[in-house]
Amino acid sequence: MNDGRIIELEIKAAYQEDLLQALNQIVSRQQQQIDRLEATCGVLNERIKSLSADGRRDENSVNVGYEIPPHY
User: Fold this and answer.
1) Which value, in Å, is the radius of gyration of the alpha carbons in the chain?
2) What digits encode the pLDDT tens for the residues 40-60?
């Protein structure tokens, strides 16, 4: 192999290594965002469950989440 070909391969390998590091950082940030979104969904799910459970326990109170439309 000539020196030019070796240098060209080394340059390509260096670019690929930089790209791989950048992609790893992106994937890491995306995973952190997914983890935060899953935690938020869990909290919201629990709030919805507790609100619906509160509505079933106290049927005499006005349930703001479920109102009869005005045309009924």
Assistant:
1) 28
2) 999 999 999 998 888 766 555
Q: Give the C-alpha separation, 24 to 31, whole Å.
A: 10
CB 47 within 8 A of CB 39: no
CB 63 within 8 A of CB 55: yes
Task: Please state which of the ranges 21-25, 32-36, 45-49, 63-67 shows the lowest mean pLDDT.
Answer: 63-67
pTM given for the model: 0.60
Residues whose CB is less than 8 angstroms from the CB of residue 51 and which lie 6 or more positions away in sequence, other chains included? 65
- How many whole angstroms separate alpha carbon 47 and alpha carbon 58? 16
